[in-house]
Structure formats: structure tokens, C-alpha cells
Design goal:
There is one protein chain. Helices cover about 75% and strands about 0% of the residues. With about 170 residues, the chain is an all-alpha fold. It has one domain: DsbB-like (Bromodomain-like). Helix 1 packs antiparallel against helix 6 and helix 4 packs antiparallel against helix 5. The chain is elongated. It is a multi-pass membrane protein. It is found in: Cell inner membrane; Cell membrane. This is Disulfide bond formation protein B. Keywords: Cell inner membrane, Cell membrane, Chaperone, Disulfide bond, Electron transport, Membrane, Oxidoreductase, Redox-active center, Transmembrane, Transmembrane helix, Transport.
Length: about 170
């Protein structure tokens, strides 16, 4: 019984940590936008949404850790990894191959059907190829690392939750 209690407490603490880190990273992104003048591109916005989704799933895991929470957390983290990877790829293109800058995110969402706007955002544009660095590392590289770590924590913090409840 004590082992089950310790395991559930561990699961909840890991989920609480992931929740706090996700929302702290979004707060840092907003701070960089407002105080450092780093304007987010559409892919940056989607990466923020992936952090929010992961944070919400982890918050649910504080209340009810388990394999469903782990799966949803991994889904959010893998989505974030894919977005960050795409962003890094756009940043690695030679200037001659960078796509032209597109319309702003607000304009795309107001003007085009949602599926078309999302497709345009995911294809990337010139503003996504601009490289802003924090501590010498590009922001998409930081987000890629964060999604990998947080996704791993979601698995570790929820993997044994179901099995420990039956013990």
C-alpha cells in the first residue's frame, strides 16, 4: 500500500513539474516577444500551442495520472517536436531557397478556411527562417529539446500509474 502511495505521489509530482515548465516556457516566449522584440512567426505560435496542450494534459495528470495521460502527452510533445524540426529545417535553408514571407497569422485565420490556413502555416514562410538566438542557440532548437525532455517525463511520470493502482 505504501509503495502504491509513493508511486502515485511521484506520478503527480512529475505531472506538476511538466505543467509548470510548459506554462513557464510560454511565459518566457511572451516575455521575449514583448521585452526583447522577438516577433513570433506562425510556427512559433503553433509551438506555443503545443506547449499549452502538453501543459493542460500534464495538469490533468496531476489529478488522474495514467497511460491515457501519457499517450496524450506524448502526442502533444511529438507534435511540438515536428513543429520545431520543421522550423529548424526552414532556418537551415540557404537564403535563395527560403520561401517568401506570407501574410500574418491573424490575416490567414480570418481570410482562409482553417484547413488551408493551417496548411499554409505548416509549410512555413520567410519570417520562420529568421534566426533569433537565446544563449547562442536558436529558439526552435530550445523548443525541440524541451519537447523531447517533457515528452520523456510524461512517459516516466505516467507509465506505472495504471499498474501501481492495481497492486
Amino acid at each position: 500500500m505504501a509503495a502504491v502511495y509513493r508511486q502515485k505521489r511521484f506520478n503527480r509530482r512529475v505531472n506538476a513539474l511538466v505543467t509548470l515548465v510548459c506554462f513557464a516556457l510560454v511565459a518566457v516566449a511572451v516575455a521575449l516577444e514583448h521585452w526583447a522584440g522577438m516577433e513570433p512567426c506562425p510556427l512559433c505560435w503553433f509551438q506555443r500551442m503545443a506547449f499549452v496542450a502538453l501543459g493542460v494534459v500534464a495538469a490533468i495528470g496531476v489529478i488522474a495520472p495514467g497511460w491515457v495521460v501519457a499517450g496524450l502527452g506524448v502526442l502533444a510533445a511529438v507534435s511540438g517536436v515536428a513543429l520545431a524540426w520543421r522550423h529548424l529545417w526552414l532556418q537551415s535553408l540557404p537564403p535563395s531557397e527560403v520561401p517568401a514571407c506570407g501574410p500574418g497569422l491573424d490575416y490567414m485565420l480570418e481570410t482562409f478556411p482553417l484547413a488551408d490556413a493551417v496548411a499554409m502555416i505548416l509549410s512555413g514562410s520567410g519570417e520562420c527562417a529568421e534566426v533569433d538566438r537565446v544563449l547562442g542557440v536558436s529558439i526552435p532548437a530550445w523548443t525541440l529539446l524541451a519537447f523531447l525532455i517533457l515528452g520523456t517525463l510524461m512517459v516516466l511520470g505516467n507509465w506505472r500509474a495504471r499498474g501501481s493502482a492495481r497492486s
